Amino acid sequence: MNAKINNKNVIITGASGGIGEKMALRVAENGGNLALIARSAERLEALKEKISRQFQVKVETYRLDVSEFEKVPKVFSSILEEFQSIDVLINNAGYGVFDEAHEARFEDIKGMFDVNVLGLVACTQQVLPHMRERRSGHIVNIASQAGKLATPKSSAYAASKHAVLGFTNSLRMEASQSGVYVTSVNPGPIATNFFSIADKSGSYVKNVEKFMLDPERVAVKVIDALFTRKREVNLPRWMNFGSAIYQLAPRIVERLGKNAFYKK
């Protein structure tokens, strides 16, 4: 349990399913209030009802596609008006499409960058002035191990997550001057519906199914890190170790891991 979350106001994007939903439940369990953002109003309302039945916390829902940048300020203004303060922003909205670079549709590439990167930046910019003024807050960006170690068939997705990590690392140093914490979360494959879009053939899921992370475990690790100075949450540890080795010896890792990487 993280007692520091009690009575804090937490925004989660991409909250209608997967680790977004699990993180929302974990926040509520710790006594935090929730502003839930996602594209599906119906699924958000179902989650709100579930949380309201189980926990005595405030929950509000906001339908928003974070790639519709012009709508982001209005939604965040509504959240601030309703909650009066914002303590945490978890940028969880994101998706991937796995294709080799020469086969990838430009629309998919643009879509990933619009949601995974620019949507994340747009949401972050809405809370930063408020947090800096209060000299308090925590921004969590859900990135990926793909942002540390790119593999075949995910060039555009990996590029978007590299961008998220670059943005996050710079933001962390800037925000620290105002007492605002910034954490990146870098999970490997998670057992969610992410792969219904990313891996339509199902071949990648079949190959890595036994290594997939439990979304509940990821959510616990993320929420337990709130209001700590934790720089990164990396899961699983063995995969992050591989990413670290790649930084030191990329040619060796690419040669030895070639067959495994092509299992997407």
UniProtKB/TrEMBL annotation:
The protein's Enzyme Commission number: 1.-.-.-
GO function term, MF aspect, one: oxidoreductase activity
Main EC class the enzyme belongs to: oxidoreductase
Keyword field: Oxidoreductase
Pfam family, one: adh_short
Entries under InterPro entries matching the protein: NAD(P)-bd_dom_sf, Sc_DH/Rdtase_CS, SDR_fam
PROSITE patterns reported in the protein's UniProt record: ADH_SHORT
Family per record: Belongs to the short-chain dehydrogenases/reductases (SDR) family.
Stated name of the protein: SDR family NAD(P)-dependent oxidoreductase
UniProt organism field: Bacillus seohaeanensis
